[in-house]
Structure formats: structure tokens, C-alpha cells
Write a structure and sequence with these properties.
Two copies of one chain form a homodimer. Chain A has three domains: about 170 residues, Rossmann fold (3-Layer(aba) Sandwich), CATH 3.40.50.720; about 90 residues, Orthogonal Bundle (6-phosphogluconate dehydrogenase C-terminal fold), CATH 1.10.3660; about 70 residues, ACT domain (Alpha-Beta Plaits). Chain A is about 50% helix and about 15% strand. Chain A is built from 13 helices and twelve strands. Chain A has a five-stranded parallel β-sheet with strand order 3-2-1-4-5, with helices on both faces. A four-stranded antiparallel β-sheet of chain A has the order 10-11-9-12. The first copy, chain A, has a three-stranded mixed β-sheet with strand order 6-7-8, with helices on one face. In chain A, strand 7, helix 6 and strand 8 form a beta-alpha-beta unit. The radius of gyration of chain A is 24 Å and the shape is globular. Chain A starts with a strand and ends with a strand. Chains A and B meet through helix 7, helix 8, helix 9, helix 10 and helix 11 of A and helix 7, helix 8, helix 9, helix 10 and helix 11 of B.
């Protein structure tokens, strides 16, 4: 089997590694930046590098276009042109409608959009890993004009890379991503903006911000080069999601202004339940429970806890540090899947002399 | 010196421990729940427990009212009534205006509001620690009618507990908290609500949510009993902050709908700069830098990294795990203060065989 990878970064490189090692495929790569190509070869992500798209895709059965979103339309068109009648061409971009709309007629049968939910937090082929897609959702966006042979081939290939392919129409995909990925980034940006202005008004010196602010704005300003593309490519869905949030915020403001504690508490509680349900979706091992641990935030404390849990094979699904202002004391929240597992984890952490309380689950 | 603590939970207990051990004060406590009182005595947070407010504050120079926000007005009034003319009465609640407005005339001189930014993530006297307030900002909200003797005494006492007192008027305090603490909670709730509805529309089964969603909504539904009080007590400031966010979201939606990548990128980048500036405020050791580490998320990986950094005395200011869907692979982002320290940390993590990139600082 021959696979072509056009664009050798984190995703392209990881596709190359997985395809080479798991499928035993011959992987041929192209990247306009010859340094990336060289690195990909050195890391074993590519078996061979070529200096043109046409040369790289020649004889390939599956072509992965792993370039930035803005560069995809001409790249996909060129790849479709240069491949045989049974080959499938796909991409790994975060939005799907605009790309589909911008493709030439000729690409309709053999191009099928794709989007692996993996690897967003780092970039560069140096971070590529064979197991990047292991267990990850990989959305595929076939249309009624997609070839059956092509879809079948792509679906199997993606599964063989370790991912869990799922078909979704491009419209739903983009709306979904707007709600669970793009919107949180917009909100984080806006919150940070607002705080910067509000605080500048209060005093010359910015006061400390709390842990809730840190969490809520963690993704503010992340990877501008990638995000300007994503926002632009999904503009209407993102704007619509923003509109929904504006309306919901208006309702929340009204509720809070009304001051009825019972109703406010109800609303607040329901959000906690919703979040737990969302995070548990598709997660094995049962409900996600929070362990709140009061600690000294000296070097080594996190390690000590994580190590003790690791030794007993407890997996930490998620973690947040809440250092106090002096950065020496604070709290750690750990998320562990399943009640029994959470109890076991609490026991272990208590054994280290820390106070622990468990939140969530049936509570 | 005699200190009274009314309400023996995390904050009250920690005040007791710090006052007893650091100031050598005699600490007398009252709590309507006798279990809390007993625990406080066992843990050494109290030297003595009393069964009424009047008995507990008798002869006390400083009285800390550490009860839930809703219970404060009558408690403060009673404490002011039962103490001598030089004593100061304070509280530790998250909002200040409503409490001040609800107090009797007689409390104006000797009650001075307070709010330590510490200990929000856990509760219960079992988590109390002598060093909870070490280095933490402790807002004090004196008014023009506050007694000078009382302010001086309170200010010194709070500093002696290890905190960094700062005077701020109640109005500014509540606006500030609305922006950096209450608003993020509202937003997290709204985002979660919206995602739950949007996703329920898409399919029966909820799809995976990404790391950005997880971070942005981490505080959704936290501690409902506490938060219904906070929202209600700071209703107008929170509603106003929500209104500001609505307007800013409208601007963001317009910008994104316009689709000008350069402008969108500029806006996104500015948010990243703002966030860094906010987080660095008051932090020693220099600019906060992000280390992005690609890892296997097996039990022990976090520990291994944290331990290696701890061994070399690198302190992790903040940390976020971004597990992939299979929960076995993922990325860790670590925040480290200061460029030299970040480089050193990156070197250590690379030595463990992980790919690391540094983001932030001058970038």
C-alpha cells in the first residue's frame, strides 16, 4: 500500500509514522519547506520525500493533505488531479464546509474530508508520534457524491492508524466544532480582554486573578496563525454560536439580577451536571469524579501524588493546580473515572498525608 | 491577644491555626454545628469552643466572621454588639457591598469587611492549614466611618497571619470580583448548557469534547451552595459584567463574520498577550512561559516529569493535561516563571525523552 502525506507537521508526520509501522505502507511525503521533509525522513515518518505534489502522490492509494486550512483548496485539487481513479484524497483540517465548497467539480467523488481530534496542543513534525491517533475520534465528511470505494478505503485506513472514524455531514461537523471548540476560544479571548480593561480601570497595578479565571481563559490567544484560519473558515457557525451564548448570557444575567437564590442555585447545579455528562460521553470506566486535595505547592508535591497514583495504576483523566498567591500552597483537583477508582485514589492520596474530598458522581 | 472565630470551616479553621501558632493568640471559636467546633478543637485550630456568639467574642480583640455569605449580617451585628469599644469585627465573604448595606448603624465603626483570596477550592475545617494565607492577597474594605484603631489592628493581624492586606472600596472590590471570578463561573455554566443542547440536537450520543472546552468549563457548577449566595449578593455587578461580555462577544462575532484573517489574527493574538500580562501581575520570577510536552498519558508520566522538575527545584506554576480521546496519549502544558527557568525545565523534560516546545515570553 502506498500513502502520500502532503504537509509534514505533527499530524502529517504522525500519519506517516502510523502508516509505515502499523500498515506497513510505503509513505511518500511532500512539504514546501524542505526542512520539514528532511526531519520527516530522519524521524522515519516518511520512507521517501518528493519535491512536488504530483511526484509525491504518484501511485498513492490514500493521500493525506495535512497543510494549514488556507492552503488546502489548491493542494486538494492538485492531489485529485494527479492520482488514479481509485485513490482517495482527504485532509485533516478543523473545518469542512468551506473546503468542500471551494473544490472543483472533479474532486467531488474522490475527495472526502477528514478531521482527527488529536494533536492540537503541540505542532511540528518533531512531536509526531505513531500513536497520536490511538483511540481518537476521526470525523469523515463524505457527501452523496463520494465514491463508495473511496470511503471504504479511507475509513479502513483511518481505523488502521488507530483512530475511531465516524461519518458526519460537513454542516453538522462545523456546527459541532463551533460549539465545543471554536466558541471556547472566542470566549476565553473576550474574558481576557474584558478583565484587562476592567482591571486597568481599577488600579495601576493588576491584582491577582483567581483559578477560575485561569482555567476559563487558558486557551486565550493560542496559536494565532492556526486560529485566524479556523475562525475565518467557520465564520458563520462560530458567529451563530456566539449569538446563542449572548442570548443565554442575557438569560443568566436576568436570573442573577432577579436574585432568587433557589433558582440561581438550580441553574448553577444543572450546569455542573451537564458538564459531567459531557465529559463522560464516550469515556470508559464510569463517571468522572473530582478529588480535591489540599497541598503545599512546593516542587515535588504534584510528582509525589501522581507517582503514588501511578504506582497503584490509577489513571488521572484530568488535573488542575490551584496554587495560592504565594505559589507555595494550594489545591490540586484530580479527575478519576469511576467511583471505586476515585475512592482508591483518595485513599492513596490520604496515605501521603493530604486532605482529600471527593466531589461529583451521584452527588 | 484574643481572637474569635465565628464559623469553623476551611477559612475559620485556618485563621485559628495561623493566629494560634504565628501570633501566639488565644483562639476562641463558635460554630452552630458542634461537630465543626469539636473538629476545630481536635485539630488545634481553636484553643476553646463556646456555645454562643456572645461567649465566643467576649474579650476578643479581633473577630473573624467566617460563616456563609447569607448568614453574615445578623452574625456581624451580634458580634459588634458583644465586643468592646476597641475590638474590630471582620468577615471573609466573597462580596462586600450587600453586607455593608445590611448592617446596623452601630456596626459602621468597628466592622471592616475582608476577603482573603485563598482556599476557594476545598472546604471544611479538615482542610484548614496554618499557611493557607501565606502570601495571599487579603482585601479589606474600610469605609470613611471605619475606626482608625480598628483598621490598623485588622491590617496588622491579617499581615501577621501571612497574608498581604490591601484596602479597596467595597464597590471596586465587588466589580473586580465580578470580572475575574464570578463572570468566569457564569460563562462556564452557559457554555456547558449550550454544548449540552447543541450536542443533543446533533445525535443521540454525545461526541467527545476537546481540551479547550474542558478548560473553559472547568468551574461549571462548582459548589452550588456557595455560588448561589455569591451571585445573589453581587447580582448587579455580575449582571453588568455579563452585559459587557455580551457586547464584546457581539464585536467578536462581527469581526469573525467579516472574515478578515489579519484582523482576526490580531484580535486573537492580543488576547494571548493580555492573558499573559494578567497572570504575570504580582508574580515573581519573571514572565510566565508555556512548555508544551507531548507524552504518553499512562499512569506515571506526569509524575515522572513533575518529579524530575522537582528534583531540580523547578516550580510548576500551573499545569494542564490534554489527554487524547483514548486517555493514553496526549500533551502536557506546564507554566514556568522566567525564561531561564523555562529553558532549564525544557532541558530536563527533553532529557526524559519527550518533545518540548516553549511558547510565550517575547514571542
Amino acid at each position: 500500500m502506498r500513502i502520500a502525506v502532503l504537509g509534514v507537521g505533527l499530524i502529517g508526520g504522525s500519519v506517516g509514522l502510523a502508516a509505515g509501522r502499523r500498515l506497513g505502507a510505503e509513505v511518500v511525503g511532500f512539504d514546501p519547506d524542505t526542512d520539514h521533509l528532511r526531519q520527516g525522513l530522519e524521524l522515519g515518518a516518511l520512507g521517501r520525500g518528493e519535491d512536488s505534489v504530483a511526484a509525491a502522490v504518484d501511485g498513492a492509494e490514500v493521500v493525506f493533505c495535512a497543510a494549514p486550512v488556507a492552503a488546502l483548496p489548491p493542494l486538494v485539487a492538485e492531489a485529485v488531479d494527479a492520482t488514479g481513479p481509485d485513490a482517495v484524497v482527504t485532509d485533516v483540517g478543523s473545518t469542512k464546509r468551506r473546503l468542500l465548497a471551494g473544490l472543483p467539480e472533479a474532486a467531488a467523488e474522490r475527495f472526502i474530508g477528514g478531521h482527527p481530534l488529536a494533536g492540537a496542543e503541540t505542532s511540528g513534525v518533531a512531536h509526531a508520534r505513531e500513536d497520536l491517533f490511538e483511540g481518537a475520534r476521526w470525523y469523515l465528511t463524505p457527501t452523496e457524491r463520494s465514491g463508495g470505494v473511496q470511503y471504504d478505503l479511507l475509513q479502513r485506513t483511518v481505523a488502521d492508524l488507530g483512530a475511531r472514524p465516524q461519518a458526519i455531514d460537513a454542516e453538522s461537523h462545523d456546527r459541532l466544532m463551533a460549539a465545543v471548540s471554536h466558541l471556547p476560544h472566542v470566549i476565553a479571548n473576550v474574558l481576557v480582554q474584558q478583565a484587562a480593561i476592567a482591571l486597568a480601570e481599577e488600579s495601576e497595578r493588576l491584582p491577582e486573578v483567581g483559578p477560575s479565571f485561569r482555567d476559563t481563559t487558558r486557551v486565550a490567544g493560542a496559536n494565532p496563525a492556526i486560529w485566524e484560519d479556523i475562525y475565518a473558515a467557520n465564520a458563520d457557525a462560530v458567529a451563530e454560536a456566539i449569538g446563542d451564548v449572548q442570548r443565554r448570557l442575557g438569560e443568566a444575567a436576568e436570573l442573577i439580577r432577579g436574585g432568587k437564590k433557589g433558582d440561581i442555585g438550580e441553574w448553577h447545579r444543572a450546569a455542573g451536571d451537564d458538564r459531567r455528562r459531557l465529559l463522560e460521553a464516550g469515556m470508559e470506566g464510569g463517571a468522572l469524579l473530582e478529588l480535591r486535595v489540599a497541598v503545599e505547592n512546593r516542587p515535588g508535591t504534584v510528582a509525589e501524588i501522581a507517582l503514588a497514583l501511578g504506582r497503584e495504576r490509577v489513571n488521572i483523566e484530568d488535573m488542575a493546580l490551584y496554587p495560592a498567591a504565594d505559589m507555595r500552597t494550594g489545591a490540586i483537583t484530580l479527575w478519576v473515572a469511576g467511583e471505586a477508582e476515585a475512592e482508591r485514589a483518595a485513599e492513596i492520596v490520604r496515605g501521603l498525608g493530604h486532605g482529600v474530598s471527593i466531589v461529583g458522581g451521584d452527588e
